[in-house]
Amino acid sequence: MSSEDRPYHFHTEVRVRLPETDAMGIVFHGNFFTYLEVGRVDYLRNLGLSEGVRPIKDFENVVAAAHLDFRSPARLDDPLTIDVCVREIGETSFTFGFTIRHKQENRLVATGYTTHVAIDDAFRPTRVPDDFRTVIARFEGWDS
Question: Which domain holds residue 19?
Fold first, then answer.
C-alpha cells in the first residue's frame, strides 16, 4: 500500500462559518489550511500527543510543505468531516494526509497533505522521537 492510500482512522468535524467564506459565498481557499490544522491538532490530542498550545508534546516541528487539491465547493454552514492520517514518518520528517468531505452529502471537497520537520532549539532538523513514532505506528496499524 502506498502512503497516499493509507486508511483514515481519525475523523473530526467543523462547520463553515461566515468569516471563512468569500464574495462568491464559498470557503476562501486559504481557510482550508486552517481546517487541516484543526484536523491535525485534534488527531494529536486524541492520541495524547498535544498539550494545549504546544501542538506536539516533547518536540518542536515546523511545516515544510502544505498542499491542497480542491474538488468541490464548501459553503456557509456546511458541515465538513476532516479525515486525518499520518502517511509516513521519515528520519526527521512526517507527513499527514487529509480529506475533507461534506458530512451530509459525503461529497469530496478537498484532499491534501502537510509535511513537518522535527527541529532542535537552533531550528536544525533533528530525529523524530521514538515515542512519537511508536504511538503513531500503533494507532495507524503499522505495527501489526
Answer: 12-140
**β-strand pairing of 10-15 with 107-119:** unpaired
Return the half-sphere exposure (C-beta side, CA atoms, 13 A cut-off) of residue 17: 6
Contacts of 137 (CB under 8 A, 6+ apart): 89, 143
C-alpha count within 13 angstroms, C-beta hemisphere, residue 10: 22
The three cell numbers of residue 10 are 481519525
pLDDT digits (tens, 9 = 90+) for 101-136: 999 999 999 999 999 999 998 999 999 999 999 999
User: Domains in the chain: how many in total?
Assistant: 1
Q: What is the pTM of this model?
A: 0.91
